[in-house]
Design a protein that fits this description.
By secondary structure, the protein is an alpha/beta fold. Helices cover 30% and strands 29% of the residues. The protein folds into 2 domains: 2-140, Rossmann fold (3-Layer(aba) Sandwich); 148-249, LytTr DNA-binding domain (OB fold (Dihydrolipoamide Acetyltransferase, E2P), Beta Barrel). The protein contains 6 helices and 15 strands. Strand 1, helix 1 and strand 2 (28-32) form a beta-alpha-beta unit. The longest helix is centred in the middle third of the chain and has 33 residues, at 108-140. The radius of gyration is 32 Å and the shape is elongated.
Length: 262
């Protein structure tokens, strides 16, 4: 954890600093003597726990007012420990979701209990953040398995979609063409298009999909359509209805802004 001591009493600062230095779970700490200095440090560094005097002898703002300012500005601090000589502020402190309220003079054991609570809250919040990040990345990532399962000639085959060059509608079937071999499946081309889109397939005709990684060239045709050539040399016509899909062939286009203009 990283900690920030906010206290206008030098002796209290020194006592808190000594306790923090003795803890293995404290990665580092800073000190501030008033709310203005604290805000400056909080604007530059992230802290897991604040050790905050609730009633500093400073005209700028009290510890409670500082905490209000932090919450308004959406500063992220996992835990607040109020360290003060005033019992009467306990209720408003806990209303601000303080993890503990330690009265001066304090012992190392008492402050250690408060820091243990802060460590538990920090660990819990870090776990939640990691889980949220994992969920976000999992939602944005392509399917974990690079294999797709197909039924062909009474068997279930597992093939790499990256090896499929194109997909063609054949009546009530679709033909998956590889550089070596092909598979005939009883599926609609629309269903296959939606399933293969995450793997880089684009639709260039109502009955044809191509794997973008195999495309080597496109060129405009006099009819307003586009010609598309794949690695094997096979060529296709991209109809006007689907020409907008060609933009997915490259992450960005240089010097050809009007090439696919409507």
């Amino acid at each position: 954890m990283r900690a920030l001591i906010i206290d206008d009493e030098p002796l209290a600062q020194a006592a808190l600093a000594n306790i923090l230095r003795a803890r293995a779970d404290i990665e580092g700490f800073d000190t501030a003597s008033d709310a203005v200095e604290a805000l400056d440090k909080l604007g530059k560094t992230s802290y897991d726990v604040l050790l905050l005097d609730i009633n500093m002898n400073m005209p700028e703002m009290s510890g409670i007012e500082l905490l209000d300012r932090l919450q308004q500005n959406e500063h992220s601090v996992s835990s607040i420990i109020f360290v003060t000589a005033h019992e009467e502020y306990a209720i408003p402190a806990f209303e601000k979701q303080a993890v503990d309220y330690v009265l001066k003079p304090f012992s190392a054991e008492r402050l250690g209990e408060a820091l243990n609570r802060a460590a538990e809250r920090t660990a819990s919040q870090r776990t939640i953040k990691l889980f949220d990040t994992f969920q976000m990345l999992r939602g944005a990532a392509p399917p974990q398995s690079r294999k797709i399962a197909i039924k062909a000639k009474g068997r279930i085959l597992f093939i790499d979609p990256g090896e499929v060059v194109s997909v063609h509608a054949e009546g009530n079937y679709v033909l998956l063409k590889k550089e070596s071999g092909s598979y005939l499946l009883r599926e609609s081309v629309s269903d296959v298009a939606s399933k293969l889109e995450p793997y880089g397939f684009i639709r260039i005709h109502r009955s044809v999909l191509v794997n973008a990684s195999f495309v080597e060239e496109i060129r405009p045709l006099p009819t307003g359509d586009y010609g598309l050539r794949i690695r094997s040399g096979e060529e296709y016509t991209v109809t006007r209805t689907y020409k907008k899909n060609l933009r997915a062939l490259a992450e960005f286009w240089l010097g050809i802004d009007t090439f696919l203009a409507d």
